[in-house]
Amino acid sequence: MEIDGYAMKAYATIYEGEFGIERWILKAGFWGQIFRMFLIENAFTIPMSIIFTIINIKNMDGFVNAPDFSALPLFVTVVLIVFIIPVLETLVFQKIIIDGINRFRFIKNRWIAIIVSALIFSSLHYYSIWYVFLILPTGLIMAIMYDGLKRAGESPFLSITIYHMISNAIAIMLERI
Predict the structure, then answer these.
(1) In the 8-state DSSP scheme, what is residue 16?
(2) Secondary structure of 55-118 in the HEC alphabet?
(3) pLDDT for residue 120
(4) Which of 17, 14, 25 is nearest to 159 (CA)?
(5) The predicted structure's pLDDT at residue 4
(6) Count of CB atoms within 10 A of residue 66's CB?
(7) Residues 6+ positions from 24 with CB-CB distance below 8 Å
(8) Burial class (CB in 10 A: 0-12, 13-18, 19+), 171
(9) What is the pLDDT of residue 59?
(10) For position 64, what pLDDT does the model report?
């Protein structure tokens, strides 16, 4: 199959991200990137939560709930969940996994590293099988943006860590309400 100039430009536009979600996030500036990552994450997780509620998954074995940290003192919870865990998880799930896979010369497709990172991230958040599905979009967003920011020459570690810190802080606030 021969690709003419128009078809090649269309291919580049769609698959190289000229108008893609990644490009939309990258051109937003630091805080805009974080805000747009939340918009995309919630575009997936909110409908999934609604569907899980409608089909009454909570009556099944192992509901969607994340672990309950309410037994810990608030200060310990905040330090651990908002500050320490996001740094460690960004280091392991994005920096080590994505950068490690991308170092292999025989792996040419960046999506392999992104998908492996997201799958490991979500599977190690196994509080229930439903929570793994619910957290997968978050892992994908963080992996895509880590890779995209790195390719754009920006500091992905700081952006993803702050995004993760804010996300965990929101989860703690919602749990404590």
Answers:
(1) T
(2) CCHHHCCCCCCCCCCCCCCHHHHHHHHHHHHHHHHHHHHHHHHHHHHHHCCCCCCHHHHHHHHH
(3) 97
(4) 25
(5) 53
(6) 15
(7) 36
(8) middle
(9) 53
(10) 53
- 108/89 Cα distance (integer angstroms): 25
- Rounded Cα gap, residues 29 and 27, in angstroms: 6
Closest CA to 150 of 111, 94, 72, 107: 94
What are the per-10-residue average pLDDT scores of the chain (177 residues)?
49 50 86 93 89 70 62 90 96 96 85 96 87 91 94 92 94 79
Q: 58: which 2 tokens?
A: 């909570």
Extract the tokens encoding 111: 């999506």
**Quick one: pLDDT at residue 172?**
85
Model's pTM, two decimal places?
Answer: 0.80
What's 49's DSSP letter? H
CA separation, residue 110 to residues 9, 96, 130 (Å) = 21, 14, 27
Question: Of 124, 121, 125, 166, nearest to 141 (Cα)?
Answer: 121
66, 131 Cβ separation under 8 angstroms: yes
Sorted by where each begins, the domain ranges of the chain are: 30-176
